[in-house]
Write a structure and sequence with these properties.
By secondary structure, this protein is an alpha/beta fold. It contains 3 helices and 25 strands. It has an 8-stranded mixed sheet with strand order 7-10-13-16-19-22-24-25, with helices on one face. A 6-stranded parallel sheet has the order 8-11-14-17-20-23, with no helix packed on it. It binds GDP-perosamine. The site of GDP-perosamine has 14 residues, from helix 1.
């Protein structure tokens, strides 16, 4: 830990499946980048992520003078959103991680701390909020707005002008019709087809997607 001092050095918080794919994307751009893993779960002290041991909790960031960038490796939207605010309050910049195989339009606006996975596509004038995840092979067409700490699962298809609210979870393989708005903190089940607006906080599934009780 003590040798973490260069501007390009990175802290990655999280040690589960999401941290693993984030680290893989970081290494795909720069295999030699120095990365330190932190995780607040005491059980994580025994874990490794692609061969890297967990070196401590986020308290390490408070106790040291290092002020580099921090990547968000937590899949849970609420926990990732909380971490984003915690970092900002303490003056840390969140690292934006874009897999080299992602296609990102020149006019797309990619928020700090977001993750664009392998094969993902974000096109003209789309906005990806801070800390959002555009997972493996998901596509975000022109003028879409994806809110902070939202998560588009693998293979999600957003047609043009779609809005996804903050911290919403859109399940794997879901397709969303042009111009549809999905409110904040909504959950859309895997393989759904969203053809009309969905209210904030609800849980939806099916083709077409309808409210369900969880
Ligand atoms: O409040 C929290 C929290 N704080 C830290 N809630 C949850 N659920 N997790 C929290 N964490 C950290 O997230 C844990 O200490 C651990 O490092 C990680 C959870 O690991 P897990 O492998 O269970 O999930 P994940 O978040 O890495 O990945 C999930 O989301 C991805 C997007 C999985 O569902 C993956 O399959 C998925 N690709």
């Amino acid at each position: 830990m003590s040798d973490l001092r260069g501007d390009s050095d990175l802290v990655l918080i999280g040690s589960g499946g999401h941290a693993k794919v984030v680290l893989e994307a970081i290494r795909a751009r720069n295999p030699d980048r120095k990365v330190i893993i932190l995780d607040d779960d005491p059980a994580a002290a025994q874990r490794t992520v692609l061969g890297l041991e967990v070196s401590g909790t986020r308290d390490w960031l408070v106790a040291n003078t290092w002020r580099g960038r921090v990547a968000l490796g937590i899949g849970d939207n609420g926990a990732r959103g909380e971490l984003l605010h915690w970092l900002a309050e303490r003056g840390f910049e969140a690292e934006t991680v874009v897999h080299p195989s992602a296609i990102v339009g020149a006019t797309a606006d990619i928020g700090d701390g977001s993750f664009l996975g392998a094969g993902s596509i974000v096109l003209a004038d789309a906005t990806i909020g801070a800390g959002a995840i555009v997972n493996t092979g998901a596509s975000v067409d022109h003028d879409c707005m994806v809110g902070a700490a939202a998560h588009l699962g693998p293979g999600v298809r957003l047609c043009g002008n779609v809005t996804v609210g903050a911290e919403s979870l859109i399940g794997v393989g879901t397709a969303v019709r042009p111009g549809v708005s999905i409110g904040a903190n909504a959950v859309v089940g895997a393989g759904s087809a969203v053809v009309c607006d969905l209210a904030a906080g609800g849980t939806y599934a099916g083709c077409p997607a309808r409210p369900i009780n969880r």
